[in-house]
């Protein structure tokens, strides 16, 4: 596959907000507006897709309306980046109708998180376009941002040279469920060093792509995983699925993020995600690194899907080894 990289963002560039998944609830409109204000503070012009605030049951408009905004954004030569407003559950409805040739011929930054996983990985697989997991409008740009996270944003999308990432010493949970969780920095779950192209995102979204033409190619990749609200029992089921579908046979290494809502109410049933993954992958030797800057309701580093990275888990080392934008 020929890898395509979009052009870097510069002050004065235009970006477009789209809603490919859930409808935006009224109580998050303020965060939406805060996100627009943040982007303008970076010197960017912001265009709002005409269907961004639509509501079709639980989705942000019909399939046709949501596709229309994405296609308009990629067709518009003035738009340099396409940013998801929020995640949800229905982005997979768009996969059959996306114009991958249009996207490939008009490469630009596309970023999102959560249900964004459902679009990011297939777009990379179908086009070779480097794609960006981590930032969305409401839960990234619409919330206060630590300096180290803002620096990563600028390095990834405005400069392109990221290099080594480090733990966010100002890490904190961002809502009631995880605001009191302790941060232990990065953890070596299994020793080893590996390199490969990044692939991954939300565990549930990735499993939903199985048995379709949109399933990612995991061979020789560094897989990164996070999840929203499945408890540890459900994660056991999902990780076991990854083993049984041979994903763990293919990858070079694994990065575990923050698994929001994974704790069991019954403490006797609870266990660490890292202990669970070691048990499920006991017959494998690939290195595993656990970090806190990946997942729901925490501040995220940007993971450029398709870029070459290196992990050295014993040294708690993680680097982006190539330019993320041109």
Question: In this structure, how is the largest beta sheet organized?
Answer: 8 strands, mixed
Distance between the termini: 18 Å
Q: What is the level 1 CATH name of the largest domain?
A: Alpha Beta
What would you call the shape?
Answer: globular
DSSP strand count = 14
Mean pLDDT, rounded to whole units?
Answer: 97
Q: Write the H/E string, N to C.
A: EHEHEHEHEHHEEEHEHHEHEEEE
Tell me what portion of residues adopts beta-strand conformation: 15-25%
Unreliable residue runs = none
**Helix/sheet category:** alpha/beta
Radius of gyration using CA atoms only = 18 Å
Task: List the domain count as a whole number.
Answer: 2
Across the major sheet, the strand order is 6-14-13-8-9-10-11-7
Count the DSSP helices.
Answer: 10
What is the fourth-level CATH superfamily of the largest domain? LD-carboxypeptidase A C-terminal domain-like
How is this structure best described in words?
The chain has 326 residues and is α/β, with parallel strands linked by helices. It folds into 2 domains: 14-143, 3-Layer(aba) Sandwich (Rossmann fold); 165-320, Glucose Oxidase, domain 1 (3-Layer(bba) Sandwich), CATH 3.50.30. It is 28% helix and 23% strand. It is built from 10 helices and 14 strands. Strands 6-14-13-8-9-10-11-7 form an 8-stranded mixed β-sheet. Strand 4, helix 4 and strand 5 form a beta-alpha-beta unit. Helix 8 (232-244) packs parallel to helix 10 (273-280). The chain is globular, with a radius of gyration of 18 Å. The two termini are 18 Å apart. 46% of the residues are buried. The mean pLDDT is 97.
